[in-house]
Structures are given as C-alpha cells and as structure tokens.
Amino acid sequence: MKSTVTPIRSVVAESAPPALAIQTKDLAVHYGALCAVRGVSLQVPQQQITAIIGPSGCGKTSVLSSLNRLTDLIPGARVSGQILIDGADVLWPAYDPVALRRRVGKVFQKPNPFPLSIARNLDLPLRDQGVRNADERAGRIEAVLRRVGLWDEVAQRLDMPAQQLSGGQQQRLCIARALVLEPDILLMDEPCSALDPIASGVVEGLIEELRGDYTVVVVTHNLQQARRIADHLAVFWTSGDAGCLVEQGPAGAIFDSPKQAITAAYLDGRCC
Amino acid sequence: MPASASRLDPDRLLTGGLRLCAAFSAALLILVVIFLLLQAGPVLDAIGPWRLFADDGWFPADTAAAGQFSIVALLAGSGAVAFGATVLAAPLAIASAVFCRFVAPPRIGQLFRRMLEVLAGVPSVVFGFWGLVVLVPLINRWQPPGASVLAGALVLGLMILPTIALLADSALRSVPRATLSAAAALGLSRWRTALQVALPAARGGVVTGIILGVARAIGETMAVLMVCGNVVQVPASVFEPVRTLTANIALEMAYAYGDHRSALFLTGLVLTLLVIALVLVAELGRGANARRTAHG
Amino acid sequence: MLPIWRLLLVLSAVVLAACGNGQTTTTVTLTGSSTIGPVMTEVARRYEAANPTIRVDVQTGGSSRGIQDARTGLADIGMSSRALKPAEAEGANQHILARDGVAFLLHASNPVDSLSDDQLRDIYLGRISNWQQVGGKDAPITAISRANGRSELNIFQDYFDVAERQIKPDLIAGENQQGIKLVAGNPDAIIYMSIGTAETDQQAGVPIKLLPLAGVPASSQTVADGSFPMSRVLILVTRDDLAPAAKQVLDYALSPAVHDLIEAQAFVPAR
Amino acid sequence: MGDRLLAGVCWLAAGIVAGGFAWLLGDIVMNGLGQINLMYLLMPVADAGRAGGIGPVIVSTSLILVVCLSVSLPLGLATAIVLSEADDERWFGRLVRRSLDVLAGVPSIVFGLFGYAVFGLALGLGFSILSGGLTLACMVLPILIRSIEQGLRAVPIDIRHAAAALGMQRWRTLVAVLLPAAAPGVLVGVVLGIGRAAAETAALLFTSGYVARMPDSLLDSGRSLSVHIFDLALNVAGGEPRAYAAALVLIVALAVVNLTAISLSERLLSSRINPA
C-alpha cells in the first residue's frame, strides 16, 4: 500500500532532496527534421506533484509524451538521451513499453473516454491486465470511481455511454481509468484546459488529493494552478529553434525567487 | 516485467495474421495482372505491342486475311464516352452536393441525399436497359441512329453522378464546423462560404469522387454495351456510335477462341494499365496539391 | 499458397455439397449459342422433371464457344447455330436439332415491303444510305449489323459474299433482343436476325416486320420446307466418348417429345 | 445576388438530377409493378423467364452474396486494420494502398475474365455459385477496405493514445475499442459491397452462369438477379415486362438494405455524440 502521509509543500522544500521517480538526461525529441526540445535533464521527485510550465510550443507535451514512450505512436518522432525510471533507461529498445505504460499512466488534455459504457471503460484495462475475477474488477472499479468522486454521480448508470457524461465527468473518468491499473506515476497533459472553470476546479482538487499516493507530473498553462498544486516546478522555454528546460526546483523557491531572468519575467506575466 | 514476453505473443500473432491478409489483398492485383499477361501472351508474342496501334482496324477473327488488332478506335470510344459522362456528371454532382449542404432546407437536403443513395444502388444493367428502351429511341428522333456517344455519356453520367455527389457531399460534411463558423463570423455570404471556403477545403474528397467516377465510367460494361451502338470507329461527333474496350470484351468474349480470345485478354490488360495510369495521375495531383498546401 | 486454397475450397465444397443433397446426381453441361440456349433450357427442365437423378445445366455463350467446349470436354454437349467448319468437325459429331432462317427486319411503320439482294448488299456496304433510294420515304437508313462471332453475321457474309471489313454498319447489335429493341425504337432501322426470334417478338406485339428474301417470304414455313434461301441449322455438338447421361439427354433433345418446345421458340424441329 | 445565383444553379442541378431519377424509376415502377406479387417472388422460373417467378434467382443471388461477403469481409477487415495503422511512409502500407487503389478501378469485366479462368478453370469450380461469389469477393474487396479503413481512421487518435497509455494489448484495443467505434464505417462498407456485388452482371456471366434452377449446393450454377435482368432484356424474346419486374425487385431490395444500414449507422453515430 502506498504511503498515506501527505507531505506539506514547505516541508519538502526545506528538507533534504527527496528520492527521484523519474530522471531524464540530455533528453531530446525530434519530429522528422524538426527538433521540438533538446538537452532536457528533468528531475521528478517521488510522490510529489511536479508541474511543467512554459509558453506554448516549448516542448512540454513532447517531454511528457516521451516519459511513457507514447512518442512511439507518433510517426517520425525520435527520442534521444536517457529517461531513468527506477534506474532503468526506458528508451532502451528492449524495454517493454506496454509494461512501462501500466506503471506510468497518462491523462490527456481532452477527455478521451472509449466510446463504450462507463463501466466498460474501466473494466477493459483490468481485463487486459489479466484480472479474471469479475467481483474483483467490480470492486476495483467502484473504489477508483469513489476515489475520483464520480461514484455517487454514476453508480446508477454504469451502462451509459461514457461520452454522454459532461466534460468534467469525462475527465474524472479518464483519471479513474488511469488509476484503476494502480500505476506509480501519473502524467497529466493540461488536464483542466478543456474544461469549464467549475469542472476545472473539481479536477484540480482531485489532483491535489492524489499527492502522496502517486508521483504526478502535470503540464499546465495556468500559473495560478501551478502555484496552487505544485510541489516541484520545471520551467521550459524556447531558445533558438527548440525548447529547453531553463529552471527546476521546489515550487515555492522558484515562485518566490526565480534564478533566471526569463523565469521571473514569465512568472510575472511580463512577456508573451 | 516477467509477463511481458508471453504477453507479446497474441499481439505478434495478430500482427502477422493481419499483415498476411493485407499482403494477400495487395497480391490480388499482381495476380490479376499476371493472369491477364499469361492469357494475352500468345497474341502479344505473335503481333507485338505496336500493332495494337498501327493495325488497320479491329478484325481479330477475319477469316480472309490475317487478324487485325488495332485498339485505337476502342480506346477512342472508351475515352469519348467516359469523358462525356464526366463532363456531364461532375458539375451536376458538385452542384448537387452544395445543394444538399448549403442551399436546400435540411429536410429536402436529407431527402435528396436518400435519393442519391438509392440511385447509387441501381444496377448498371438497369441503366442500360432503360437507356436502350427509352433514351436511344428519343435521341434517334433527333439525330439518328440514336445509339451513340451521347446516349452512352448520358446514361453513364446519370450512373456515376451519385458516386461523385455522395463523395463530394461527405467531403463537404467533413469540413470542420469551425471553419464554416469562422467564415460566417467574417460576414461572408453563403455563396462565398460554399464556393471559396467549403469547396476548396473539401477538394480532396471531390477529386477522389471524380476519379472514382471516371474509373467507373471507363470500366462500365453492360450499360455502354446496350446504348453505344458498338460500331468500331473513332467518332466524328457525339451522335456517332462507338464501341468501348469493355463492351468489346463482353460482346466478343463468348464467341472468341485462339488469337482472338487472347487479344481480348490483352485489351483487358490495356484497361487495367489505363486505370493504373489514372491512379498514378491522381496520385501526382494529390502530391502536388499537398506540396502547394504545405508551402502556401 | 495456391494448393492450400484449393484444398480449402474443395473441402468446403465437399461439406456444402454433403449437407446440400444426399442423393447422388449426375450433371450434364451444355454450353454455346444463345439462340439455342432458351430452347435447351426448356428441354432440360422437362427432362429433369422426368429424370430426377440427372441435372442438366445450360450455359449460353456463343456457337464457337459451344463447339470448343464440347471438343475440349468442358461441356458434354455444345450448342451451335451454324454448321461446323471443317477444322472444327474433326473428332466432333453434329446432330441437327432444328432449322432457322435469318431474315431482314424493318420497323412495322416502314413503307418499304421488299428489297432485292443487291439493294440489301448496297445498304450494308454503305452505298445506299437513304430509304428514298429504295422507294421509301426521305430518311437516313440505320443499318444494323451483328457482332463478331454471331452466326447470323457468318450467314450474312456467306450469303452476300462480303468480308467483315467491307460491311459499313450504322450500329452493331450483340444479342438478338438488343437488335429487336433497336429496330422497335427506330422506324428507319434495318437488321438481319433469326426468323424464329423475330416471329416470337412479332406475336408479342413488337412493331417489326420481316422482309422476303429473293421473293421468298420469311417465315417458319418457308424455313421448314427449305425454300427460304438464307437459313441455318441449329445443332448439338458432341464428342465420340459421350457419357451415358449426356447421351440420354441428347437423344431426348432430338426426339419428337420436345418438338412443341422447339416450335414454341419459333424454330423448325428437324425431322 | 451571388447567393441567389448559387441557390438557383443548385436548385436547377438538383432538379435535373431528381428529374432523371424520377424518369428512370418511374419507368421501371410503372412497367414492373403490375407483374410483382408474392407468387412471383416465390415461384420457379418458367418459359425462359417469361412466366413463373424468380424464387430460385433470389436464392442464388443471396448465396452468391453470402459467399462473397464471407470471404471478402474477414480479408477486408484485416487489411483495413493494417492500413489504418500503417504509416503511409513505410513501403508496405504504401504498396498495399496503391495496389488497392488500382484494384478498385479494374473493370468488373476484367474480374469476370479473372474469375472464369482462376476459379472456374484452374480451381475446377466451373460455373458455380462459389466461383461467382469468389469473383465478386475480389471485386468488392477494395471498396470494402476503403470504407472500413475510413471508419477506423475516423476513430479519434486520442482513443488510440488512451488505449496505448493504459498499456493495452493491441488485439484487445482493436476488438474491444476500435472495431466497435468503427462499426458505422464497417457497416457502410458492407452495404456498398453488397450493393456493388448485387448489381454486378458482367463478372457473373462467365462465373456463376445462367442456370435458373433452385441450387442444391454452392457448386451448382446459379443465376443472379442482375444476370436474370440482362438475360430477359437482351436474350429472351418478349422478356421485357419481366425484365422490368426483376429490375424493380432488385432496386427495391438494394434500396431497403441501403437505407436500413444508413439509418442504423446514423443511430450508432448519434448515440456517441455528447448531448451537452
């Protein structure tokens, strides 16, 4: 079972550097001849919320996609460098991406439930992972729906097409779907940006509740949101033709006293 | 990750099986071409490819003299009828698609689309039958003998029209609503939106529809056999009868043997090559289009 | 690849055949002339009704095809609407099923009632192009010829002694009914066709009329008594090693028991 | 001004098309309707088609379609799956796609020649429902593949990514997610295939043959409805009224299949659309 202690941001910031869940070394992502991002050495502390921020087109999403090798699915995409998770380089060709993705879940910008019923959306991944016992699956589905606060809303209509849920409900279902496989790490690509403010608030609250149980990496455009939820911050910028990582560290420290002039300007909203 | 090795197996199997099926589907074309070549071999050996164009007419089974195998008139016939059908059908089809999407009240547009769908399902032999009994006598009263390039183009045009119209319609439908809203927000008239925003955006689908239509027009057999008059000649006007490559096969195959039969398979091969050329041209056009879009 | 396919197909075929029918039946296949096809289809139906263990399949193609198929063994019996050429007759037996004449047909409203052989020849060679030139009204002639391989074309060529390339037709018809419809829809058309077929259509009310040839009226009677000059035989073609079932079908088709069927198609049974 | 002009031109075009349609269909309905009754649909063919019904012809047509679909559907589905996932830059996907493009344009009569020699002669199936069905299967394969592939491609890429991000196995993603999502496209493909196959005449003349008897097995020759129409129209003296009747039956059957499938696929699609 995972730790139930909820670390407080300031405590983390002042204590010794925590253990790392993910560490990239000189990571670069190319699409054909185009270089999206290069020279990224990102550090993601365990069981904290790491926010990746930066202006559009600076490679945040590319980095996030590479972390569970979803870049494999993009024609022409090439990832170089190293991504260490538990000390193993996941970019190593023999590394099984399927096993990786079961440990490293992902929530997308736009809610993308399968065009199936609510229950089937959660049932399918469990079945696929070899959970044969129907009762066990039902139990885990209920647990995970409770966890994302959806159970009371949908318990009576689990057979309804998932795409008939509202946008916020769909996104929470997608989070539930990612969680039902009990991953260690959860990647979230601007999970609130396609939602209205109220739904966005609900999902944001949910992310905060995941703190401590999961290592969460969340890409966001919303600085206020990053300020509210992030323990750890990574700031990306476009320099020259490609994106790069300009600064990373405990969120409080960066928000209070950024080391780079670019970061300071960005956080103040003085540019772009 | 101990489970990963065994987990990969069903997927490997699936991928392999699927690829095998795909390879078979692709090989079908090669099979068809090889088989046509085999059957056309004897006459190709005997006369060589050039006499297909240099010979004195199409008399493959002439008992008096040696067979003559010129397919120039047949090619002209196929070309004339297919061209005529496309010229008649394409503008009407595109206008019909625009009608469905932009002009007609939704109910009528829906009804019209249903009608096109039914029309698309009418078998070609029915078109031919109708053309022979109704259309040909009508044209005959105006310009004898009636069975002609015009009759063929009209019947084929009506036949390929639903194909082009439905494909154009679905291409127009797939133009993102946001694009149309953007045009509307700019205060563009419906006319400009349809002609200058939606149609260019749907160009790919429209062109595909026309190409499919042309291919169908060239390949159609029964309808042209019934209404085109079947005289082997290069037509001097649209009122003259012609024989197409396909009608020629259907007319003579059952009666042919020896070199004649082999020559008919050769014309089948020519037809297939014609279609390959058409697809290549379409491909080049699409490529040029893509480049223009990329740069522009 | 191919043998596996074949195996599968044969296997499935066997299974399907097995569940389809427990009874053993023999199939006799006929191919060839589309002129004879309809007659033999009716003959086959009557024969099957009396002999449930024998099935008779009739496929129409063309005379040449029927002769070829019978000689190569693809069919048990070939159907041909012309006599065999010397090269074809080798190793093949021909049995006369019926006789038929080929006559010229006009639209019923055409005032022309007779044409001489020379006039007919000139019309088809393109030297006469208006009905006025042969005593009709002022209208262009639509001369309809028949497609290569049709026995009518061969008979026409033999009778007028012209080569295929000399014929300058305005239209070419393949099957009989295409020709009939072209004439029925065009008052100025002329075509040559099986008398039997034409008479059937005439009785069905199609507005066509048959021209006499060389002074002999075109009808089943003149064909039957042998006076009509442009006539042909409808024959069945077999090999020497005919299967017993096919032999029975052949004998039945040549027997008086089917004369009514042949006459129903307006052909003249061979006696 | 421009709007008026566009509307006028489009109404005119639609009018012309609808007029041609009404003319063609009206002619067939008027001449064919009187001939059709239940006995006509059930009775065996008599007097070369001038009398009796079309019972065996309907059975043969259905059997030919069943053979055609049971071969082409699995093959088409598999190929469409490969294509929908193939990267077009890779040679395999490109090769398959190009050859299918060409195959889609190959005239049906060429398929007829092919089927006659391959299934009829080389495989020894002769004139049979099996030969005809297999020939049609080759013919409709490209159409089937194209529309199934479109259906598969219309499934948003997000959904594939979602499945991949869950580490789902490929076959399960396909069977449980992609194919159900692509069902409308598959349905449209099948209907187009049925339509094309049922309307085909040229390719069947040399493969399934003319025999109008009730078939006992798939190895029997069987006359399809389209061949029956062709035969009545061009071979049988006085067959015209019955040709109209058979044409009407075929058109109505195809229209029913077509419209049912379209409304079904629209219902499938609309159940997926978020009402919010």
What can you see in these coordinates?
The complex is a heterotetramer of chains A (272), B (296), C (271) and D (276). By secondary structure, chain A is α/β, with parallel strands linked by helices. Chain A has a domain at 20-110 and 184-267: Rossmann fold, CATH 3.40.50. Chain A contains eleven helices and eleven strands. In chain A, helix 5 crosses helix 7 (167-179) and helix 7 (167-179) packs parallel to helix 8. Chain A is globular and about 55 Å long. Mean pLDDT of chain A is 85; it is low at 1-14. A two-stranded antiparallel ribbon of chain B has the order 1-2. Mean pLDDT of chain B is 84; it is low at 1-7. Chain B has helices spanning 4-47, 51-54, 72-103, 106-120, 124-142, 149-173, 177-185, 190-201, 203-219, 222-227, 245-252, 259-295; strands at 58-59, 68-69. Chain B folds into two domains: 3-66; 72-295, MetI-like fold (Orthogonal Bundle). Chain B is globular and about 70 Å long. Helix content of chain C is 39%, strand content 22%. Chain C contains eleven helices and ten strands. In chain C, strands 1, 2, 3, 4, 5, 6, 7, 8, 9 and 10 form a ten-stranded mixed β-sheet that branches. In chain C, helix 6 (151-160) links the parallel strand 5 and strand 6. The radius of gyration of chain C is 21 Å and the shape is elongated. In chain D, strands 1-2 form a two-stranded antiparallel ribbon. In chain D, helix 3 packs parallel to helix 6 (129-153). Chain D has a single domain, classed as MetI-like (MetI-like fold, Orthogonal Bundle). The two termini of chain D are 38 Å apart. The interface between B and D is large, with 86 and 81 residues.
